[in-house]
Write a structure and sequence with these properties.
Blueprint (H helix, E strand, L loop, with lengths): L4 H15 L12 E6 L14 H16 L3 E3 L9 H10 L3 H10 L1 E2 L5 E2 L2 H6 L16 H15 L1 E4 L4 E4 H11 L17 H6 L2 H9 L4 E11 L4 E3 L4 E2 L2 E2 L7 E10 L5 H7 L7 H11 L1 E11 L5 E6 L10 E4 L6 H4 L2 H15 L3 H6 L7 E8 L6 E6 L11 E4 L5 H9 L37 H15 L2 E7 L4 E2 L12 E3 L5 E3 L32 E3 L4 E3 L9 E4 L13 H4 L12 H7 L2 E6 L7 H14 L9 E6 L3 E11 L8 E3 L1 H9 L3 E2 L6 H9 L8 E2 L5 E6 L12 H7 L7 E3 L16 E5 L11 H8 L1 H10 L7 E2 L5 H14 L17 H19 L3 H17 L5 H11 L4 H10 L23 E8 L2 E9 L4 H10 L1 H7 L6 E5 L3 E5 L1
Parallel strand pairs: 1-2, 1-25, 14-16, 25-26, 27-34, 28-32, 35-38
Antiparallel strand pairs: 3-4, 5-6, 7-8, 7-11, 9-10, 11-19, 12-13, 12-15, 12-18, 14-17, 15-16, 20-21, 20-24, 22-23, 22-24, 27-28, 27-31, 27-33, 29-30, 35-36, 37-38
The structure holds one RNA strand of 84 nucleotides.
Pfam families: Anticodon_1, tRNA-synt_1, tRNA-synt_1_2
Catalytic activity: tRNA(Leu) + L-leucine + ATP = L-leucyl-tRNA(Leu) + AMP + diphosphate
GO molecular function, one term: leucine-tRNA ligase activity
RNA sequence: GCCUUGGUGGCGGAAUUGGUAGACGCGCUGGAUUCAAAAUCCAGUUCCUUUGGAGUGUGGGUUCGAUUCCCACCCAAGGUACCA
């Protein structure tokens, strides 16, 4: 009987769906295990083979855990709000909700394009997802809870004394009693101080404004990159050289009132929490760097002739007597004010030049030193000496205060700046030469020339100077974080609407929880309005009636009982910041999730996803989780115990090379190999129309006289060829290519030896290059096609077999035949009967078969625990090869073997399991138990090395002593042959391992 | 610049604690089977000047022994904030 994978896979996928095999219960005698994938954004392009890599790995792990007796939660859903759907809506006028549904469920879009749909594609790969728990972030019954969390954040403040988020009502009570003098909270810098009496005297508007300084989500003016032409705000990396990446429109910095999330309140806890999660170190490093904690002091420098002060943050307050200038970021707010008339022109020119440079550019360029003196002077807090104030683009406005106290003797950048501009470099270090470079070694610092700090090391000097600064009222010790509050408003249509309306004073009010969700209004176009308002400004029914408690027409707005709703929507990361908890109880309409559900599942045990989410999704999710923990909603303040980053699968593009300097009427493609020969031979190309044969010969030989150029790769333009037209030997299907690109219908193809390709006998070999998998590079490989041709089990095995999960690796469809023929061999192992009929015996297996089985159990179990899935596929191949040659057909071997294979290739496993006589799914069959006794050996084939190089092998009993081994080896003829009469200096014997003879 | 990851045959990769470098698979070569092809099976396949020798990005070091540990460097990919 043949291995009929198409029918087998269909049969079991239907079986799993019908029997709800993978539906997880929220209570069980078994221990729980939660395996989570980062859910996909359902794009119209569908899945390619790179997408399921992580899903296959997590599925193997989830299935393995079921075999190990766990109650496994393995859900899947869609992160279905997002920009591509909105762009598509703008272009085609289709509602993003419709296109999104088609992308998930399949169907035909307005253009008549058939879309398979993510769900079908995923189902085809045999994943053990519990689809009854599916969530879609763009469904109102899901985003109801995203809005709900937003309201909870609005109604909370961060109490630094308690080090947790608390109810805003408690803060109001405290204000009524004592004002805000004794409140320790994370709040805006410019929060005024007031007494209880002040508070009581405030108007409602004033009170609300004060409270916004404390709320965990708050309205603030933030600067954004505004692109008037696109009517939208752009991210830093959407801007290239000061203009938008799309369309090249000018971008201006604009202040906008937007919602912000006070993530900075959690900076320290986000940092500390990294200690207790098992996440990849590079990912932890990037979060640590993103949070950017540094300890030092805030120092205020008074300005000469101005009331203002320049605030700086420094990690080296101990070096304050070494300050010889200050540098402000060119964007610093004081620059315009303090620049003297003489310097004005130079400063303005410099600012203009800086504005054209991106932050990345300013950061990466350490060689160019630039800056301009403002003409102004600050005053040293202790010596009262004047300090010149410069501007320089090595200081970034976005970090700290945007100003630096420059200590050239202790900081290399300040040193280089001072040298370049001939600024004084006072030495304040004892016994250190600073004539060549700055001295930045904190540990070996002894301060000198510094008044009251003389003779002190770094730590004591820092302590002392902070105390002195505090006395002067010009500074204090401070911990600074790079982390900024996160802007939470987007001027887009396809996102969660805010449950917020604005009163006549422009103050925000939350809609009561019981009226959620506030669903997205219909609009007739998805672009910003003509007045520059976000797309929701196009809605005619987008006002909140506080009496009727519903969304009503805009015309009813009276600012008494009917108010305007927020026109912004939430960002992409809103919906993904708590979905892992919602999966635990996804249909609950009363609560975000029940306490029973969250207390049972607790947290994610294994999370698999891409490293590109290191500082976005994964940081915001941790923030929301900590907030929910403070509110007593979740039992764990970190949502995922272990995290694995899967690498990218890159595509192997295929190229044909068009000769750009031929003057024949026909297009000529030369093979990669032939061009190499021509270039290596330094062949010449001439420009005369000749019969084709002459033309080819002129490529390789120098034609007398009329030479125009030496052959060069630049003469041959590479064009992508669709990878589906190339076989496993890199041979192009020439006819297929001509049909695919009709403009090349008459093209001539020249093979590796300069032959013109005609018919099937000659081969055009394409060039290969590894690139990101993308439609435009024609290197996308569709998993459906692979499933069709080789089956889902082959696809699953092959994706794992490609290499280590975490590394990026190129896809090459040709190699899949290896794992496919492995599955066929596996099938034959169970079908040794006449005409390939199913047949297993009840005979006792021989010793070798037991050994093969148990070493396989051991290795596969270790591999899965270490997420080394590629090596277990090899192990299966070795096992099947060995069992085949042992002619093993014993049930005692073949039954446990198929359980081992089952997490990787579940369809074939179910089929064989059924044939073995089981009427229940294999999915919960207990994982075979490894027994050491089958691997015990009595002898070992020792490698015999000479000076560390293995020269021959010798089979010896394992119970020989060291001396016995040595004498046996030394007496061996091959040893004498190697030594050629020499006497060895030394013989190293490691019993059970190796023998090494030195000399 | 800085941080992170990586560099092993023609290709993907293996070598889990310092102990046989190249497992397993692809590709390639030869053979069997076949009218032929597909499929399947068997043998070979790191390189070289082959009774031997060299070899895991480069150059050093530690060691009886290094892909593995240490130092310096080169290259590639990803990230990034001159962090004061």
């Amino acid at each position: 009987m043949q291995y009929d994978f198409n029918n087998i896979e269909k049969k079991w996928q239907e079986y799993w769906a019908k029997n709800q095999t993978f539906k997880a219960k929220n209570d069980s005698e078994k221990e729980k295990f939660y395996v989570l994938d980062m859910f996909p954004y359902p794009s119209g392009a569908g899945l390619h083979v790179g997408h399921p890599l992580g899903y296959i790995a997590s599925d193997i792990y989830a299935r393995y855990k079921r075999h190990k007796g766990f109650n496994v939660l393995h859900p899947m859903g869609y992160d279905s709000f997002g920009l591509p759907a909105e762009q598509y809506a703008i272009q085609t006028g289709q509602h993003p909700a419709d296109t999104t549904r088609v992308n998930i469920e399949g169907g035909v879009d307005k253009e008549g394009k058939k879309i398979e749909g993510y769900r079908k594609q995923l189902d085809r790969m045999g994943f053990s997802f519990d689809w009854s728990r599916e969530v879609r972030t763009s469904n109102p019954n899901y985003y109801k809870w995203t809005q709900w969390i937003f309201i909870q954040l609005f109604n909370s403040w961060y109490n630094t004394d308690a080090d947790k988020a608390e109810d805003i009502a408690d803060l109001i009570t405290a204000f009524e009693k004592n004002g805000n003098a004794n409140i320790k909270a994370v709040c805006d810098e410019d929060t005024p101080s007031f007494t209880a009496e002040d508070w009581k005297a405030f108007s409602e508007k004033e009170k609300q404004e004060v409270l916004l300084n404390y709320r965990l989500t708050y309205l603030a003016e933030s600067e954004v990159n505004w692109c008037p032409a696109l009517g939208t705000v752009l991210a830093n990396d959407e801007i290239v050289n000061g203009v938008s990446e799309r369309g090249g429109h000018p971008v201006v910095r604009k202040k906008m009132t937007q919602w912000s999330m006070r993530i900075t309140a959690y900076a320290q806890r986000l940092l500390d929490g990294l200690q207790k999660v098992d996440w990849p170190q590079p990912l932890k490093d990037s979060q640590t760097n993103w949070i950017g904690r540094s300890v030092g002091a805030a120092v205020d420098f008074n300005l000469k002739d101005f009331e203002d002060t320049i605030s700086v943050f420094t990690t080296r307050p101990d070096t304050i007597f070494g300050v010889s200038f200050m540098t402000l970021a060119p964007e610093h707010e004081l620059v315009g004010k303090i620049t003297t008339p003489e310097q004005k022109e130079a400063v303005e020119a410099y600012i203009e030049a800086t504005a054209k440079r991106s932050e990345r550019e300013r950061m990466a360029d350490v060689k160019t030193i630039s800056g301009v003196f403002t003409g102004a002077y600050a005053e040293h807090p202790f010596t009262k000496e004047p300090i010149p104030v410069w501007i320089g683009d090595y200081v970034l406005a976005g970090y700290g205060t945007g100003a630096v106290m420059a200590v050239p003797c202790g900081d290399q950048r300040d040193y280089d700046f001072a040298k370049h501009f001939n600024i004084d470099i006072p030495n304040i270090f004892e016994g250190v030469d600073i004539s060549e470079e700055a001295f930045a070694d904190k540990e070996n610092t002894v301060i000198a020339n510094s008044d009251f700090l003389n003779g002190l090391p770094y730590k004591e000097a820092t302590k002392k100077v902070i105390a002195e600064l505090e006395k002067l009222g010009q500074g204090e010790g401070k911990v600074n974080y790079r982390l900024r509050d996160a802007v939470f408003s987007r001027q887009r249509y396809w996102g969660e609407p805010f449950p917020v309306y604005y009163d006549a004073d422009g103050l925000p009010h939350m809609i009561e929880e019981e009226h959620l969700p506030i669903t997205l209004p219909e609009v007739d176009k998805y672009l910003p309005t003509e007045t520059g308002e976000p797309p929701l400004g196009n809605a005619t029914e987008w006002a909140w009636d506080t009496v009727a408690k519903k969304v009503v027409e805009n015309s009813k707005i009276d600012n008494k009982t009917v108010f305007a709703l927020d026109l912004n929507t939430m960002p992409g990361w809103a919906g993904s910041s708590q979905y892992f908890n919602r999966y635990m109880d996804p249909k609950n309409e009363q609560e975000i999730f029940s306490q029973e559900a969250i207390n049972y599942w607790q947290d994610v045990d294994l999370y698999i996803g891409g490293s590109e989410h290191a500082t976005g999704h994964l940081l915001y999710s941790r923030f929301w989780q900590k907030f929910m923990f403070d509110k007593g909603l979740v039992p764990k303040d970190e949502f995922a115990k272990k995290l694995i980053n899967q690498g990218m699968i890159t595509g192997t593009s295929a190229f044909v090379y068009r000769w750009s300097q031929n003057y024949l009427e026909k297009v000529i493609f030369l093979s990669h190999g032939f061009i190499s020969k021509v270039v290596d031979a330094r062949g010449f190309v001439n420009d005369y129309s000749k019969p084709l044969e002459n033309l080819i010969s002129s490529l390789t030989s120098k034609p007398g006289g009329r030479v125009i150029s030496e052959a060069n790769w630049k003469n041959f333009m590479p064009l992508h060829a669709d990878v589906s037209l190339v076989n496993s030997s890199d041979e192009l299907d020439v006819e297929g290519f001509k049909n695919w690109r009709p403009e090349f219908k008459d093209a001539i193809f020249i093979g590796d030896n300069g032959e013109i390709i005609e018919g099937d006998n000659d081969k055009y070999i394409v060039g290969r290059e590894v690139e990101k998998m993308s439609k435009s590079k024609y290197n996308v490989v569709n998993p459906d096609a692979i499933c069709e041709e080789f089956g889902a089990d082959s696809l699953r095995l092959y994706e794992m077999f490609l290499g280590p999960l975490e590394q990026s690796k190129p896809w090459n469809t040709a190699g899949i035949t290896g794992v496919h023929s492995f599955l066929k061999k596996l099938w034959r192992l169970y079908h040794g009967g006449a005409d390939g009929a199913f047949e297993v015996s009840d005979e006792e297996p021989n010793k070798d078969s037991w050994k093969t089985l148990h070493k396989t159990i051991k290795k596969v179990e270790e591999d899965i625990e270490n997420f080394s899935f590629n090596t277990s596929v090899s192990t299966f191949m070795i096992a099947v090869n060995e069992l085949s040659s042992q002619k093993c057909a014993s049930r005692k071997i073949l039954e446990p073997l198929i359980i081992l294979v089952s997490p990787y290739a579940p369809h074939i496993a179910e089929e064989l399991w059924e044939k073995l006589g089981h009427d229940e799914s294999i999915s919960e069959a207990p994982f075979p138990k490894f027994e050491e006794k089958y691997l015990v050996e009595s002898s070992k084939e020792y490698p015999i090395s000479f000076n560390g190089k293995m020269r021959f092998k010798l089979e010896l009993p394992l119970d020989l002593s060291k001396d016995e081994i040595e004498s046996t080896v030394m007496a061996h003829e091959k040893t004498q042959q190697q030594l050629q009469g020499r006497t060895p200096k030394k013989v190293i014997v490691v019993p059970g391992k190796i023998v090494n003879i030195v000399g």
